[in-house]
Fold this protein.
Amino acid sequence: MRKSLFPLSLIVSLALSACSTILSNLPGVYKVDIQQGNVVDQNIIDQLRPSMNKRQVLFIMGSPMMADPFHQDRWDYLYSNQPGGDDRVQKRVTIYFKDDHIAGLQGDLRPSALPVIKPSEETTVELPKRHLERTLSEKILGLFSGDETESSPNLGPKPANSSPNKIDP
């Protein structure tokens, strides 16, 4: 009994390991991108300046992944990305503070030495002015108030000396 159990367990373990290899490498199978932590890239790091306080860093970087209760002047940011089951890419940045201002930066990304001038992605569109005599709510209230003195913006006020049946030559 014991001799027949060993080859059977060996065959089952080999079959299971082969299935996992085949299943993990099937073409056309969708694999989810896995992102964890704060997004940390060079554009965000370039926005940091030495005179910034903790609130400004919090606005740019977000809350730190790890805030050590024993070291209040150290914030750690981690970002991990595994696109489609490929190898995981991890970035780490540690910001050190002194007197609530940035004292140093350590990690995978460094701020650029020159000031970064980004071209604006915003565009300005000039719209023509609209000449509205009354708002929609004023028009609706005018219908229910029974006020005959207000005139329709499309028709204009009626002249006092004209009659609807009289035609001028």
